Amino acid sequence: MQRVLVVEDSKVVQQVLRHLTAQYLDVAVDFAWSLAECQEHVEKYDYSLALVDLTLPDAPNGEVAKYTLSKAIPTVVLTSKIDEYKRQQMLEDGVVDYVIKDNRDSYHYAVKLVSQLLRNQGCKALIADDSMLSRSLMKQMLEKQLFDVTTANDGQQALEILKADPDIKLLMTDYAMPTMDGFELVKAVRNFRGRDDLAVIGLSGAGKHGLSARFIKYGANDFLTKPFMNEEFHCRVLQTMEQLSLIADIKESAFRDHLTGLYNRRYFYQYAEKLLKNQNQNNTLALLDVDFFKNINDTFGHEGGDQALKQVGSLIRSTFANFTVARVGGEEFAIVLPDIDLARAREYLEAFRKKMASYDFSISDKSCTITASIGLAEFQNTNLKDAMRVADKALYEAKSKGRNCIG
């Protein structure tokens, strides 16, 4: 579980940071006023990241950052002033980044920086470079940003690694490499991984005119010239990954039902169609329809109906957490159970039907019972239209039998 420690002695600044972390971070956040309190927290918990003030009453010379770094906690520093010597010293000590506290936007930047670093944790990155020294240096820098880093010593090896591991989200590739250069690698990668799925940053030595434009035209998201400053490296990587995260958020939002938070009909049809291409397993489709939903709307109004759908959606999601669940109509939900035959699926859905029928739903502060009719269809090597037709027929049979049953 991710956890963040914020160390700040100013009441005003800490209040701002409390507000922003609550807004942007979906993780546990602890606050400390001093080095002593910071040490107490670190003894109790394991932290993914620390955001610390450089100057504290009991640690006026950056001792708190040195302490968190000594405990192997990636650290971002907050400071009200900085000079070149202190900047260089902090970077040599190993801080991920520093933020100058000169306006309110600085705190937004700091918290959003922490948010992106947390998203990087466990994210896979690949470095392709024929220089062992460069690979080692960049690996250390990416690990500071919480990436899980793999390296390759030429483009061909990098290409094979990327084909074998679709979870890699960042590729940093040098231009001049044996076997396959950076341009050829990027062109080959873009044949099966798009810009919104894999971020690519090109690298090359100084004096190579036009390489940056060519890298980007071939499919790179950004470019860095060697030798680069640590800060530039971190900023470029963080900015590139932030763009990738924003695209992922937009795509995720487009596939979600606004009311229940479940996947929507559009995503369901795309996902189910992919499953249909697998001819080596039996899959089951369940269609679930809330019984007498019109009566709920008539009794409690449309706001009450929305409350009911949210609670039903939440119950389905928690029960079938390992499966894909979607809201495909007004009060109709779909559950896809891959590699599960009809008999096992019927057992799962019957247990859920009983659970739902005995569940205490609350609509407009009134307790009520909600049931559902369910239709099942087993499919293998078929098309979605046919699978939906079978499930719909089974759902109609469940309703004709009196509802609150499986057809």
From TrEMBL:
<dbReference type="InterPro" id="IPR050469">
    <property type="entry name" value="Diguanylate_Cyclase"/>
</dbReference>
<dbReference type="InterPro" id="IPR011006">
    <property type="entry name" value="CheY-like_superfamily"/>
</dbReference>
<dbReference type="InterPro" id="IPR001789">
    <property type="entry name" value="Sig_transdc_resp-reg_receiver"/>
</dbReference>
<dbReference type="InterPro" id="IPR029787">
    <property type="entry name" value="Nucleotide_cyclase"/>
</dbReference>
<dbReference type="GO" id="GO:0052621">
    <property type="term" value="F:diguanylate cyclase activity"/>
</dbReference>
<keyword id="KW-0808">Transferase</keyword>
<feature type="domain" description="Response regulatory">
    <location>
        <begin position="124"/>
        <end position="241"/>
    </location>
</feature>
<feature type="modified residue" description="4-aspartylphosphate">
    <location>
        <position position="53"/>
    </location>
</feature>
<dbReference type="InterPro" id="IPR043128">
    <property type="entry name" value="Rev_trsase/Diguanyl_cyclase"/>
</dbReference>
<dbReference type="Pfam" id="PF00072">
    <property type="entry name" value="Response_reg"/>
</dbReference>
<feature type="domain" description="Response regulatory">
    <location>
        <begin position="3"/>
        <end position="116"/>
    </location>
</feature>
<feature type="domain" description="GGDEF">
    <location>
        <begin position="281"/>
        <end position="407"/>
    </location>
</feature>
<protein>
    <recommendedName>
        <fullName>diguanylate cyclase</fullName>
        <ecNumber>2.7.7.65</ecNumber>
    </recommendedName>
</protein>
<keyword id="KW-0548">Nucleotidyltransferase</keyword>
<keyword id="KW-0597">Phosphoprotein</keyword>
<feature type="modified residue" description="4-aspartylphosphate">
    <location>
        <position position="174"/>
    </location>
</feature>
<dbReference type="Pfam" id="PF00990">
    <property type="entry name" value="GGDEF"/>
</dbReference>
<dbReference type="InterPro" id="IPR000160">
    <property type="entry name" value="GGDEF_dom"/>
</dbReference>
